[in-house]
Amino acid sequence: MIFCDTFERLNLGSTVQFDCWFFDGHPSVEAVERELSMAGIAFSRHDTPYEPATFLLRLDSGVELLFCKSSDPEMWPSVPGLFGFQYVDKRQSQSA
């Protein structure tokens, strides 16, 4: 599993290219859904049972985009919108 919530320091090595524009300014779920749809990328929305202030968009590739619903300064993250992503290798989770 790969998890990242600090895009400024993300280093994936010389073999991977990653454009951080997607995460600039915590885009809203509506904006991200629009971009995914325009690119022809299928996704589905899922609640996160461990944190009611967050939810995720799951892509068929195994990538999950993490969103916050809240703007409460006492919570983390304290801004609504996209705040992280993770990748779960479906082959690994199915064999476990």
Structural overview:
- There is one protein chain.
- By secondary structure, the chain is of the alpha+beta class.
- It has a domain at 34-90.
- It contains two helices and five strands; from the N terminus they run E-H-E-E-E-E-H.
- The chain has a five-stranded antiparallel β-sheet with strand order 1-5-4-3-2, with helices on one face.
- Strand 3 (54-59) and strand 4 (63-68) form a beta hairpin.
- The protein starts with a strand and ends with a helix.
- The mean pLDDT is 78.
Taking the sheet with the most strands, its summary is:
5 strands, antiparallel
Radius of gyration: 14 Å
Shape: globular
Order of helices and strands: EHEEEEH
Strand content: 25-35%
Structural class: alpha+beta
- Could you give the distance between the termini? 13 Å
Helicity range: 10-25%
List keywords for this structure.
96 residues, alpha+beta, five-stranded antiparallel beta sheet, 2 helices, 5 strands, 17% helix
